[in-house]
Design goal:
The complex is a heterotrimer. By secondary structure, chain A is an alpha/beta fold. Chain A is 39% helix and 24% strand. The N and C termini of chain A lie far apart (39 Å). Helix content of chain B is 81%, strand content 0%. Chain B has nine helices and no strands. In chain B, α6 packs antiparallel against α8. Chain C is mainly alpha-helical. Chain C has eight helices and no strands. The radius of gyration of chain C is 21 Å and the shape is elongated. Classes of the chains: A alpha/beta, B mainly alpha, C mainly alpha. Chains B and C meet through α3 and α8 of B and α3, α7 and α8 of C. The complex binds adenosine-5'-triphosphate and magnesium ion. Adenosine-5'-triphosphate (ATP) binds next to β2 and α1 of chain A.
């Protein structure tokens, strides 16, 4: 490792009652890296992201964010989450707030900004995702792709140091995925560190600095996209990646 | 006919006085019920288990027994324990506690129908649990609860009619006194019925306007899901 | 020891009102059922005149406090026939409940698929026959959960006949408290008795609903 990682996950276990989901997951992520995380359904991808931002703190193991151990006792979880942006599969926009309101509320309530300042920053973030003209619309009045872009703007407003995406395009109609992936690609270009759970293999090829394949709660194999797609070490990796690439091909 | 108009002339001032008291009781009790129902509803969903149990018992007690008997316990019974209330206070307290139980239940239903993702997303941008409840969950739940709450307002107006049994000078008490003075219970109670119809109708129309005013696309409650 | 004996005496006295309360509830529910079903049918299948009549009944009665309706009907009935307070009060309560039940059954009638009527007419039934033997049995089943809820409401409202002197639970509690001078105990016991009654009723209704659902 040449630089210190922005995020270090060390031997994380997570169980829900009797079901063990993560079984000693470890991964280090460098600043400005884009890691695409793939794996079969139920392998623990969403659980991992929720462990990272402490929505579901790990059962054991440790996580460092910018050299601070966030799994240490006494750490303020709310403060940690402000530094970690999260984008959900089903958007989870606040239903009672407009697009602008969705971006502003974290700024005023969490970052304690003044209304005016929050408004200006929120408009800036909406501009970044190309939705200034939809600022006054409520979630019910937006398309899926627009909702997801608002959700990204909402996360960006908190000035996160790393962004987690949990299947950001899989609830979208195929013709709407492009606009979301474009925004994410732009973010990557600007140097945002990102972990993206996604089966969009085109995006992984073009944007990812690394692809991580997990199964059964552990990393099976990881590497640059080219290597992962063309000469993976394990047959299991090859089979899985071929399967999802084929599925994607079918859809297009 | 002339006799009826004369009677109407004689009883209307008294009935109007009673109407003012009825409205006053309904308004104060509704506000008291809201002050109780809001924290109880939130506590029943987000509170610790022991608190949920205690609040559940309160709701069951007040929803499972007749308002009239609750009123007797408060006005005639509680003085045995050293808690004595005036007639108006007893009316406010009983109706407020009763309405609080119903309002809490409506709110609970609405809180539970706000999707879990809303809380997750709020926590993900760094809000604390209570911050998320206050600025994300409650504003949605309060809109969802509005239709059920409107029904509660109308139920309250009608419920106030029982307080005459402790001689609070409301519309019913006035009617009772007037009908024994004029020996004409039927026309007088019919007139009272018309008074209630006008009150309920007016409140209904006003609440419908309010509902329309605060409506947000994608966030409409229906009485069934909230109740 | 004395305290418990007094408590038992008081409770026994109030308990005799239980049968009256149950009687009032059952009579009112049945009367309300008849009014409710008939009015709902008129509302859904009647001509313009009957539709308006049924709608007026439902809207007006539901806008007036039940206790006012009890007073009005109590005096109206007393003018024409010599009925005991029990019967007058129960009928009045039933008339009020009928308006609420008519809304329940109206919803149920309307949610029976229209194809049912068409099919019944297609096999040669008259309109009335179709309503009677095809639509009504389905509607009553659909109405069951809401009707159970109304039943517990009528049970609680049955205490309102107190105001016309029917010796139900609350009236008995009032009488005994005048004698023992311990109103808290008397009314508290009445409250608990009612609570037990409503909880039991809810349980029974839930059981019925579950059973009925299995048969579907
Ligand atoms: N809150 C929870 N309580 C109990 N079990 C859970 C919870 N969250 C996840 N699980 C279980 O953990 C396992 C992994 O779930 P997870 O959502 O992390 O998988 P995933 O890799 O994201 O799958 P998918 O591709 O379907 O989204 C599943 O078996 C799931 O049932
Ligand atoms: Mg997942």
């Amino acid at each position: 490792m040449t630089t210190t990682p922005i995020l270090r996950i060390d031997d994380v276990y997570k169980s829900f009652g009797a079901t063990q989901v993560l079984k000693g997951f470890s991964l280090s992520i460098q600043p400005q890296e884009v890691v695409v995380l793939v794996g079969p359904s139920g392998s623990g991808k969403s659980t991992l992201l929720r462990c990272i931002n402490l929505l579901h703190p790990p059962t054991s193991g440790r996580i460092w964010l910018e050299e601070e151990e966030i799994t240490a006792p006494g750490v303020n979880h709310d403060r940690v989450r402000q530094r970690i942006g999260m984008v959900f599969q089903d958007f989870n926009l606040f239903t009672h707030l407009t697009a602008l309101g969705n971006v502003m509320i974290g700024l005023t309530k969490v970052r304690k900004m003044h209304k005016k300042e929050a408004h200006d920053l929120a408009m800036f973030e909406l501009e970044r995702v190309g939705l200034v003209d939809r600022a006054g619309h409520y979630p019910a009045q937006l398309s899926g792709g627009q909702k997801q872009r608002v959700a990204i703007a909402r996360a960006l407003g908190m000035d996160p140091h790393i962004m987690l995406f949990d299947e950001p395009t899989s609830a979208l109609d195929p013709e709407l995925t492009g606009e979301v992936l474009e925004v994410m690609q732009q973010l990557a270009k600007e140097g945002m560190t990102m972990i993206v759970v996604s089966h969009e293999m085109g995006f992984a090829r073009q944007v990812a600095s690394r692809v991580v394949f997990m199964e059964g709660g552990v990393v099976v194999e990881e590497g640059p996209p080219q290597q992962m797609f063309e000469q993976p070490k394990y047959e299991r990796t090859r089979a899985f990646l071929r399967k999802i690439t084929d599925l994607e091909g079918d859809e297009k | 006919m002339q006799a009826f108009l004369d009677l109407l002339n004689n009883v209307t001032p008294g009935l109007l006085q009673g109407t003012v008291i009825t409205l006053q009781i309904a308004a104060v009790s509704l506000l008291l019920g809201m002050a109780i129902g809001l924290p109880v509803g939130v506590g029943r969903v987000y509170g610790p288990v022991w608190l949920q149990r205690v609040l559940g018992a309160y709701v069951t007690l007040f929803q499972g027994t007749p308002l009239l008997i609750q009123l007797f316990v408060v006005y005639y019974g509680l003085p045995d324990l050293g808690l004595t209330f005036g007639r108006m206070e007893a009316a406010f307290l009983t109706l407020g506690l009763n309405s609080g139980a119903y309002q809490a239940e409506y709110l609970r239903g609405a809180l539970q129908s706000v999707s879990e993702g809303q809380m997750t997303a709020a926590r993900a941008i760094g809000m604390s649990k209570w911050q998320a409840i206050r600025s994300i969950i409650l504003p949605q739940a309060l809109r969802l609860v509005l239709p059920a709450w409107s029904n509660e307002v109308i139920a309250m107006l009608k419920n106030t009619a029982v307080v005459f049994v402790i001689a609070v000078p409301d519309l019913m008490t006035q009617a009772k006194n007037l009908s024994s003075r004029y020996f004409a219970p039927i026309p007088i109670y019919m007139t009272v019925a018309v008074f209630y119809i006008i009150l309920v109708g007016a409140v209904y129309l006003i609440l419908r306007q309010v509902e329309r005013r605060v409506q947000i696309p994608g966030l409409t409650g229906d009485a069934e899901s909230a109740a | 020891m004395d305290f418990f004996q007094d408590l038992a005496t008081t409770f026994n006295f109030i308990l005799q009102g239980l049968w009256v309360t149950i009687g009032v509830t059952l009579v009112a529910l049945s009367v309300g059922f008849v009014f409710g079903v008939v009015m709902a049918m008129l509302r859904v299948y009647g001509n313009a005149f009957f539709r308006a009549l049924a709608a007026a009944y439902s809207v007006i009665v539901r806008a007036v406090p039940v206790v006012v309706i009890i007073f009005i009907l109590f005096f109206v009935i007393a003018r024409f026939v010599n009925l005991s307070p029990f019967w007058a009060g129960s009928l009045a309560l039933g008339f009020a409940s009928g308006a609420y039940q008519s809304e329940i059954f109206r919803g149920a009638f309307q949610s029976v698929p229209p194809g049912q009527m068409t099919a019944a007419r297609a096999i040669g039934m008259s309109r009335v026959q179709a309503i009677q033997s095809i639509i009504l049995p389905q509607a009553v089943r659909l109405a069951l959960p809401a009707w159970g809820n109304e039943a517990t409401l009528v049970l609680k409202d049955s205490t309102l006949v107190f105001v016309v002197g029917v010796p139900e639970i609350l009236r008995r509690a009032q009488q005994v408290s005048a004698r023992t001078l311990e109103p808290f105990i008397a009314f508290g016991l009445a409250l608990l008795l009612y609570l037990a009654l409503t909880l039991l009723t809810t349980q029974v209704l839930q059981w019925l609903e579950r059973r009925y659902r299995l048969q579907m």
